[in-house]
Amino acid sequence: MSASFDSASSNLHFRGIHVENEADHRAINALLKSYTESVEQGDRERFESLLLHLDIAFSGLRTLSAYEDNAEAVDVRNYPAFRAAIFESGIAFRQQFFNQKIEQDGNLAQVSLDFITTDTSAGKRTGGWKVLQLLKIRGAWKIVSELYNAQSLEDAK
What we know:
By secondary structure, the protein is an alpha+beta fold. It has 4 helices and 7 strands; from the N terminus they run ββααβααββββ.
């Protein structure tokens, strides 16, 4: 395996080395399954065990839009707001992931996916796209960041 670089053309082409394996992809898929199951079961402890720590970058773009005029004030460490909405609100949710794309290079991975979250009592659905960055620490994959964009699917009807 080697990186390739074509400097002869005006279009630069670079193909890096990505070290991947099926066992890691299975482990990452298991992490994603634990993610959805813990949300659906309201299991905060299980969900938080998937995170590297509670102060990771974890934010929706809607939250960040309030900072458009003051980029220096942007703080993407908004997991406490997610925790309050999902695990402390008393609302039951159903979470579905679609179009999962895993990219990996050794102990670093990124997952991009589409999602639908349904408030099961009200039937309201929110959908969007998220990107999770993962690190393999002591043999276990952990979420080190999650950024997402979401919108009400009810508005799309």
